Amino acid sequence: MAPEPTLQTTIIAIANQKGGVGKTTTTINLGAALAEKGKRVLLIDLDPQGNASTGLGVEYEMRDATTYDLLVGEISLADAVQTTSVDRLEIVPATTDLASADLELIDNARRSFLLREVLRAPQGGAENFDYILIDCPPSLNILTVNAMVAADSIIVPLQSEFFALEGLSQLILTVRNVRQTANPDLRIEGIALTMYDTRNNLSLQVEDDARENMGDMVFKTVIPRNVRLSEAPSFAMPVLSYDSNSKGSKAYRALAGELIDRTQKQKAA
């Protein structure tokens, strides 16, 4: 098999098998913050709930071409991409069709590589973006594995709550398995502490534990609990558009800056 062409685009999976940790919120707002900094960003909604699509204003009836169609090989990436209300931020939306992917792909010997083959196809369209962010479902199923096999790295949103670190072990084990079997270059880009409340001793303790155990892997930026962050999805826009001066907006801008620094150093290494 011919070697894959080198892709300058940075592909990042946003993953945590636990729900309610701010995964989709992080995908949407990190994407918007990168776009605000002049980067061309594609968001791939790989969650059957389609919350990232809804949060960027893509109504269900507008989702004619979806990530499901990409995985089953019915369309190209270029045909699946839709614009959003945010300049330089585009999306491949999802529908509930994705929920049946596990069963439908079970007999496909290449089932773990489908997204990788789409994103890394020569002149397939991925090269038009600086960053591709993949919003994974809240489980370690074939969709999340596809994201990990396709990605350069993973960002793990970690809610600042009791037992937060315990769920990381299963995710890290999955990353290790993917490295050994399908994507030896996969790395954890960083852990982003979300729903952080400075008035809450538990948030401070979780941060201390995370930094002690995971070191520099934890982003310096923490994402606060913020009313504006919670409200923005109901208006189908990122918090940066909804309230540009909110604490949530400022935090995601800072996180985007850290991510750009990390990926630039990685490419220079």
Using DSSP, what is the number of strands? Answer: 7
Name the CATH superfamily classification.
Answer: P-loop containing nucleotide triphosphate hydrolases
Q: Runs with pLDDT <50, length 5+?
A: none
Based on Cα principal axes, name the global outline: globular
Q: What is the C-level CATH assignment?
A: Alpha Beta
Report the major sheet.
Answer: 7 strands, mixed
Would you give the CATH topology?
Rossmann fold
Mean pLDDT: 91
Strand percentage: 5-15%
In the sheet with the most strands, the strands line up as 3-4-2-5-1-6-7
What is the rounded Rg?
Answer: 17 Å
**Domain count:** 1
Helix content: 25-40%
Which series of helices and strands comes N to C? EHEHHHEEHHEHEHEHHHH
Q: Count of DSSP helices?
A: 12
| Straight-line distance between termini | 27 Å
Helices and strands: which structural class?
alpha/beta
Known CATH architecture: 3-Layer(aba) Sandwich
Question: How would you describe this structure to a colleague?
Answer:
This protein is α/β, with parallel strands linked by helices. The chain has one domain (10-264): 3-Layer(aba) Sandwich (Rossmann fold). It contains twelve helices and seven strands. It has helices at 23-36, 51-55, 67-71, 77-80, 101-104, 114-119, 142-150, 168-181, 201-214, 227-231, 239-242, 247-268; strands at residues 10-14, 41-45, 82-83, 89-92, 131-135, 153-159, 187-194. The protein has a seven-stranded mixed β-sheet, with helices on both faces. Strand 6 (153-159), helix 8 and strand 7 form a beta-alpha-beta unit. The longest helix has 22 residues, at 247-268. The chain is globular, with a radius of gyration of 17 Å. The two termini are 27 Å apart. The relative contact order is 0.19. The model has no long low-confidence stretch (mean pLDDT 91).
